[in-house]
């Protein structure tokens, strides 16, 4: 009951804030914003490489990684089917 009383005002404030055009402007700038992540280097426990890409580039990178993983899983499953 107490949780419902604290969450309801938060939704009311969120619904009242801002105009309709502000989110569109922020999403365009967010898409161009650089996001940097540290990637561990193979063969070292301490070394890490900093990689910076835009949100769109990270999304594409992860999409390709998922596609490659799914392709490997499909190929592995196909090779194990009884003949």
TrEMBL record:
It comes from the Bacteria. This is Uncharacterized protein. It comes from Niveispirillum cyanobacteriorum.
């Amino acid at each position: 009951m107490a949780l419902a009383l604290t969450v309801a005002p938060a939704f009311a404030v969120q619904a009242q804030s801002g105009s309709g055009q502000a989110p569109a402007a922020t999403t365009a700038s967010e898409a161009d914003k650089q996001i940097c992540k540290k990637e561990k280097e193979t063969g070292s426990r301490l070394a890490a490489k900093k990689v910076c890409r835009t949100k769109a580039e990270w999304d594409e990178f992860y999409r390709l990684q998922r596609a490659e993983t799914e392709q490997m899983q499909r190929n592995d499953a196909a090779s194990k089917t009884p003949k």
